Amino acid sequence: MDAEAIRKDFPVLFQQVNGHPLVYLDNGATAHRPLSVIDEVKRFEEEDNSNVHRSVHTLGQRATVLFEGARTKLAALLGVPETRGLIFTKSATESLNLVAYAWGRHHLTEGDEVLITEMEHHSNIVSWQLACKDTGAVIRAIPVDENGILDLAEYERLLSSRTKVVAVTHVSNVLGTINPIAEMAAKAHEAGAIVVCDGAQAVPHMAVDIPSLGCDFYAGTGHKMCAPTGIGFLWGRESILEAMEPFHGGGDMILDVWIDHSTYNDIPYKFEAGTPPISQAVGLSTAIDYLNNIGWDAIRRHEVEITRYALDRLAALPDITVYGPKDANIKAGLVSFNIGDIHPHDVGTILDGKGVAIRAGHHCAKPLMRKLGVGATNRASFYIYNTHSDVDALVDALESCREMFG
Amino acid sequence: MSDLEDLYKEVILDHYRTPRNRAKIEGADVHLHRDNPLCGDEIDLYVDIEDGRVTNVGFEGRGCSISQASVSMMTEKLKGLSIAEAEELANTFKSMMQGEDAKDEDALGDLLALQGVQKYPVRIKCALLGWNTFLEGVKIHNEKHGS
User: Fold this and answer.
1) What is the CA radius of gyration of chain B?
2) For A81-122, what is each residue's pLDDT tens digit?
């Protein structure tokens, strides 16, 4: 693939920031939208906008077809044979909260254990804390070793008949580590636990086939994969979803309503109360087309290559600490690092002064920051439109930081 | 001068590299831990108060240069002030950071160096961390002991 050519599809990249050409390396936070997505969302708003599932008029039907078409396209992307298990939410965070709330609160009891990992994003920690507070279950965490890899021996030791949930991220948003979900899910199922996988950092960057992962729930989001913000998804095993209580009450999730009780719609609609993110789903559908057209093998190869280049160039700088795996082949396209004792917020501000956008902070992973013994890190995260010259600009800007704080 | 040089003035980098009064005060009249949940800057502030006057200030913490330099400069300024004067200075500093013209340049002194932070809205709360912690600590102290 030709990243230079792909860049041209992203108007936002062509601007000066603080007198320098923008170098956008914060794709782990959100990725940009190509013209095809921007145009299709605009076209939808101008021509088809209507509510879905309830309006019999023409625009309502067009909106419904496009909305359900997005579901079908997403199901194909994720390798799930049916769309029934695929719920649209507003974000991966909401998806994880849905599981913790609607499954967790009804299935966990005192003495049960929820097994998470030390590398989880806060959304896969706090949502379980809330469920545990209400049920008396407790949280345990699989440790991360010094290379940023989960300690699987310790995982097996922690698994027991008390374990009811294993909640694990597919890809760490700080370390880039790709976790062995299939292997972990098989062990969790032997112990009788369900497996909840956070795919927010995986789906945008690599071909994800949910059935071969073997998990029971899989959460993701649109805005990190070229779609608008405000749309996420949760895939759940149909038999589990059917047996679950709803998450939110409201329109579209019911079959019939009386004053004192209701019957619920079929899945996935049982979990989609209220007007869903419709134009965002249309944008997601176009984003999937865009990424499919580039090809998932090409996307992955590009990210491995640019990550390898970034790791090499960063390693040549003095006083650099890189966190997580140093082998680009076993991680996603991001690099977390610190330079000497310069605080990441200072690094982030100085880089911004040079037009280079990175993430500086705790990345919503404070337990992992404690484990790494730092308050914050810098993170450069790559996508399809990043080039070697973006990495060069990053390294040049880091040299300026060292001079300023030298 | 570029915006960046305006932000990272030498006096700020000096306080960051060589923080003043960076020590725990055992049994301090006021001890408060506060952090910026968004950034991860954190401080423990210790203040001794005698007869309505700030007699000693110390801090421990970690975070970016702006947060740590600002609290270091604050500890130097507050020592010896009456509580009322200290609160007034804190509020003058806060107004300056929120974009108002520095009302009392003499009182602010070195703190004027932090004016450059105004241009970086996300960093303002770094600069205010120490000061807000001080104001909150004094308020708690007053509620306990009467002002």
Assistant:
1) 14
2) 999 999 999 999 999 999 999 999 999 999 999 999 999 999
Lookup: tokens for A139 = 């949280």
Sign of the alpha-carbon dihedral angle for B111, B40, B16, A379:
negative
C-beta atoms of A405 and B13 within 8 A: yes
CB contact under 8 A, A350 and B4: yes
Decide if A32 is inside a domain: no
Whether residue B39 and residue A346 make contact (CB cut-off 8 A), yes or no, is no
Query: Domain boundary at A265, A291, A317, which?
Result: A291
Active site residue A215: no
Q: Is A30 within the bounds of a domain? A: no
User: Rg of chain A over CA atoms, in angstroms?
Assistant: 22
* ipTM score for this prediction: 0.77
Helices (runs of H) and strands (runs of E) counted in chain A: 15, 17
Rounded Cα distance, B65 and B74, in Å: 14
Distance CA A213, CA B115 (A): 53
Cα of A29 to nearest chain B Cα, Å: 14
Which fold, B3-140?
A: Sufe protein. Chain: A (3.90.1010)
Gap between the Cα atoms of A217 and A185, Å rounded: 11
Give yes or no for B38 touching A (CB within 8 A): yes
Distance from CA of A374 to the nearest CA of B (A): 10
